[in-house]
């Protein structure tokens, strides 16, 4: 299920957006302050962000710029400002679409689907990090000319990292996203899986990337 982050400081509007998106089978995350967005973005890894312009803490334009420094996650700007200059400003700064208030809920859902569909067509099925190639569709991993054989779980974990490079995840987040909520074993299974992946990728030059342990924070696929 694709996850949509709703960044809107007015609770009634946020709740309306959540209801419409939930009805369209999207998972939602609600954020009410601009200065909370980046932290929640790292934690949640949304598929798309609906971002209000007028926010407490940091305004939407500044949030958009910070997001674009680290991610190409699609962003739909949501604002009461309807002037053409404001619309063009958002698109020029990296927004993928623009919706002016007052909006129709069904239109927001339709635009969300359209942006995700457009971005999906642009997503390359193979993620390359130097010698390392991860085929997201064919579920294959190559290191140079050598195919790397992994267990299904390890392959799923590596694929997840490849889809979210340079983002940090705790053990609990990885258990949820890779093992699933029904998993009842120890979260140390993550450590064991990562150890096997590292061993399998021992020929991958550190200058190109590595699976890093960030003490007290979690793991990330760091690529350079």
Automatic annotation (TrEMBL):
InterPro entries reported for this sequence: CheY-like_superfamily, OmpR/PhoB-type_DNA-bd, Sig_transdc_resp-reg_receiver, WalR-like, WH-like_DNA-bd_sf
4-aspartylphosphate: residues carrying this PTM: 52
Response regulatory domain boundaries: 3-116
Assigned keywords, A-Z: DNA-binding, Phosphoprotein, Transcription, Transcription regulation, Two-component regulatory system
Keyword Glycoprotein in annotation: no
Protein name stated in the entry: Response regulator transcription factor
DNA-binding region, residue range(s): 124-223
Top-level taxon of origin: Bacteria
The OmpR/PhoB-type domain, residue ranges: 124-223
């Amino acid at each position: 299920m694709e996850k949509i982050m709703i960044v809107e400081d007015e609770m009634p509007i946020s709740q309306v957006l959540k209801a419409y998106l939930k009805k369209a089978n999207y998972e939602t995350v609600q954020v009410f302050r601009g200065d909370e967005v980046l932290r929640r973005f790292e934690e949640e890894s949304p598929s798309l962000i609906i971002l209000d312009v007028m926010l407490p803490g940091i305004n939407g334009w500044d949030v958009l710029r910070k997001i674009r420094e680290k991610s190409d996650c699609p962003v739909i700007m949501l604002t009461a400002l309807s002037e053409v200059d404001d619309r063009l400003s958002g698109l020029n700064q990296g927004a993928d679409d623009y919706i002016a208030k007052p909006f129709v809920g069904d239109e927001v859902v339709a635009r969300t689907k359209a942006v995700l569909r457009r971005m999906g067509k642009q997503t390359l099925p193979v993620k390359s990090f130097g010698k390392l190639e991860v085929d997201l569709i064919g579920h294959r991993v190559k290191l140079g000319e050598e195919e790397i054989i992994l267990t299904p779980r390890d392959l799923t974990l590596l694929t997840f990292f490849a889809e979210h490079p340079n983002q940090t995840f705790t053990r609990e987040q990885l258990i949820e996203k890779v093992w699933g909520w029904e998993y009842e074993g120890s979260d140390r299974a993550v450590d064991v899986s990562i150890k096997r992946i590292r061993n399998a990728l021992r020929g991958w030059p550190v200058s190109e990337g590595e699976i890093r342990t960030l003490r007290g924070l979690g793991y990330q696929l760091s690529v350079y």
